[in-house]
Design brief:
mainly alpha; Growth Hormone, Chain: A; globular
Length: 403
């Protein structure tokens, strides 16, 4: 996902550097975070079977992770503001590694859930701090590239980390896949410790100040669309293995390929959305995105209902699913910044929380629809995409945007 952070220097920060090596190391951390956040979609049925719960119940571990991230992110930003940045980043990745190790070894579903909550806390502490630290370590003319590197770790996780997790799970089991994420997180922590200079913390921003942006009418009207739009695309995502099987995509090769196509669509949608938002305006980009999302899910619902294997067409639809899902973030951030430009870091942070709330809500709804079959899951997603388009038209004037 695309994100923007406060790029102002930290108190007493080290001299800005010409090298992007620290940003590249931080990108390894965001790659681990992104992989951890979404990797369970590739092996949910196997994990459910091993822990003796339904696939829908296992999917709620995704909702728990997303909800914990959304709620913890602003709280941790306040609580850890004065901590040295390098120490905080290392601690966050160590926690992420330990949490994934716990989940990989979990003997019961309850222990798995504890691991997922701890992982969410580590992710919520790491990601915003990584972006701000990368921006603080480079000269102004290199700031954009540094941020792009750090955020690139998240989008690369969508394109590569999740399919690789699926391959690992197919060959070695889901526990090994989570163990691999733990190792990746530990390597990221080591890289941060060896590469980053010492950096002090900054002045804390009170939680009341962070949440004050919600009182802005424009912000309050835009954020619910982030929740609804992300919920729409994540209704089927956490259950991608069973719902893709219903449209003819199954097996050790076809499922990872489909996930790669989704990730490629996510990267393309994110990049193109940023460019087209500047040219055509965010409302037009979002309108096209929700239309594409609704069409993709509606066709997948029809294919699932008829049990018609149409693997080449499904590949195109899955790519469109990924692109329409992740085209939302740049356009929504644009609308929020237009509504409260003087509170840019705060509203973008709130948008990140809204993204994860949407992911959690979508996973809950998908779990409720799953017993009715894949067609019902895709149909619900299409319905929510249409609802997002309606909400967009109703809030099109909420920020000073060009349409």
């Amino acid at each position: 996902m695309t994100s923007t952070v406060n790029a102002s220097p930290m108190q007493g920060s080290s001299p800005r550097q010409d090298t992007l090596r620290p940003a590249a190391v931080l990108a390894l951390g965001t790659f681990a975070v992104g992989t951890d956040a979404f990797v369970t979609a590739g092996f949910l049925p196997a994990m459910a079977g091993a822990l003796h719960v339904s696939t829908a119940a296992a999917g709620q571990s995704v909702s728990l992770f997303a909800g914990a991230y959304a709620l913890a992110s602003p709280l941790l930003a306040v609580a850890t503001a004065r901590l040295p940045r390098r120490a905080l980043l290392v601690a966050a990745l160590v926690l992420l590694a330990a949490a994934n190790a716990l989940a990989a070894l979990a003997p019961t579903y309850a222990v798995l859930l504890v691991g997922r909550v701890l992982a969410a806390l580590g992710a919520a502490a790491f990601t915003p701090t990584a972006g701000a630290t990368a921006a603080a370590l480079v000269r102004a003319e290199s700031r954009g590239r540094a941020l792009a590197l750090v955020i690139g770790g998240l989008t690369a996780a969508t394109a590569l980390g999740v399919p690789l997790g699926r391959v690992a799970a197919a060959g070695l089991g889901w526990r090994a896949a989570l163990g691999a994420v733990a190792v990746l997180s530990a390597l990221g922590a080591l890289g941060v410790r060896l590469t980053l200079p010492r950096l002090p913390g900054g002045a804390p921003v009170p939680l009341r100040t962070r949440l004050a942006a919600l009182r802005r009418p424009g912000v309050l009207r835009v954020l619910p669309l982030t929740v609804l739009g992300m919920a729409a695309c994540y209704v089927p995502y956490s259950y991608s293995v069973p719902v893709l099987a219903a449209v003819g995509v199954s097996g050790r090769v076809a499922v990872p390929v489909a996930l790669v196509l989704y990730g490629a669509g996510a990267v393309a949608g994110n990049l193109l959305s940023g460019r087209w938002t500047d040219r055509a305006g965010p409302v037009r980009v979002l309108t096209a995105g929700y239309a594409a999302m609704a069409v993709a899910f509606a066709v997948l619902a029809v294919l699932a209902a008829g049990r018609w294997p149409a693997v080449p067409a499904v590949g195109v639809l899955v790519f469109l699913w990924g692109a329409s899902s992740w085209c939302q973030t740049p356009a929504q951030q644009h609308r929020l910044l237009a509504a409260a430009s003087e509170q840019a870091p705060l509203v973008v942070s709130l948008n990140a929380s809204a993204i994860y709330l949407g992911i959690g809500a979508g996973t809950v709804l998908g779990g409720l629809a799953l017993p009715a079959g894949a067609a019902a899951v895709f149909a619900l997603a299409a319905l929510l995409a249409c609802a997002a388009a309606v909400l967009l038209r109703g809030t099109a004037g909420a920020a000073a945007t060009s349409t």
